[in-house]
UniProtKB/TrEMBL annotation:
Gene source species: Thermus thermophilus (strain ATCC 27634 / DSM 579 / HB8)
Lineage of producing organism: Bacteria, Thermotogati, Deinococcota, Deinococci, Thermales
Compositional bias segments (type: Basic residues): 168-177
Region (Disordered): 167-186
Pfam family, one: Transposase_mut
Gene Ontology terms, MF aspect: DNA binding; transposase activity
Keywords: DNA recombination, DNA-binding, Plasmid, Transposable element, Transposition
Keyword DNA-binding: yes
Ranges in a coiled coil: none
Entry keyword DNA-binding: yes
Gene Ontology BP terms: DNA transposition
Name under which the protein is recorded: Mutator family transposase
Role, per record: Required for the transposition of the insertion element.
Family membership: Belongs to the transposase mutator family.
Length: 186
């Protein structure tokens, strides 16, 4: 259960909370940019499968999100019929659907229901197949993000405890504790 050979460092982390907050915000901003870029690619692919046509490169677009400005490469088609469903023309701010998407995923909403909800938010209907492909890619990227190696200066310790209510024999406080060092998951 515990790795007795693992040693936890007693030295303090040289990164203060503000720096850590900035680093975390930057990591989330980059992840949001990657997810949005993936959505753009999948949206154009789905459009071209239905309407036909050919790819024709990209154009740059800056978009303000909850986590900061992201630079996107918006795909286009040769006949200029395609425009991303979730990007309104000339809009520079993104509707915050991230919270809605996380809430839908956490609530276990089916892909068909999620497609209906997103169509109300975005004004465009996505098929459940497109959402399935998007979900698979996002979950794959999230898994890679969770399992990536952290830089040495980012040290974290996972602490967890359980405090059952009531008496345990004659002892009132019986709290289970577990500490996991680097490389070990609870």
């Amino acid at each position: 259960m515990f790795n007795r050979g693992a040693h936890l460092s007693t030295r303090r982390c040289p990164v203060d909370q503000d720096t850590l907050r900035i680093l975390l915000r930057e990591a989330v901003r980059e992840t949001v940019a990657e997810v949005l870029q993936t959505v753009l690619e999948l949206d154009r692919t789905a459009f071209l499968q239905v309407h036909g046509g050919r790819r024709n490169g990209y154009y740059p677009r800056k978009l303000e999100t909850t986590f900061g400005q992201v630079d996107l490469k918006v795909p286009r088609d040769r006949e200029s019929r395609y425009y991303p469903a979730f990007l309104k023309p000339y809009a520079r701010r993104l509707v915050d659907v991230g919270e809605v998407a996380v809430a839908l995923y956490a609530a276990g909403v089916s892909q068909r229901k999620a497609a209906e909800i997103l169509s109300l938010l975005l004004g465009h209907r996505y098929s459940h197949e497109t959402l399935s492909a998007l979900t698979d890619e996002v979950l794959e990227a999230a898994g890679a993000f969770r399992t990536r190696p952290l830089p040495e200066e980012m040290a974290f310790v996972y602490l967890d405890g359980l405090s059952p209510k009531g008496l345990q024999g004659r002892r009132r406080d019986r709290t289970g504790k577990r500490v996991c060092g680097p490389g070990h998951r609870p």
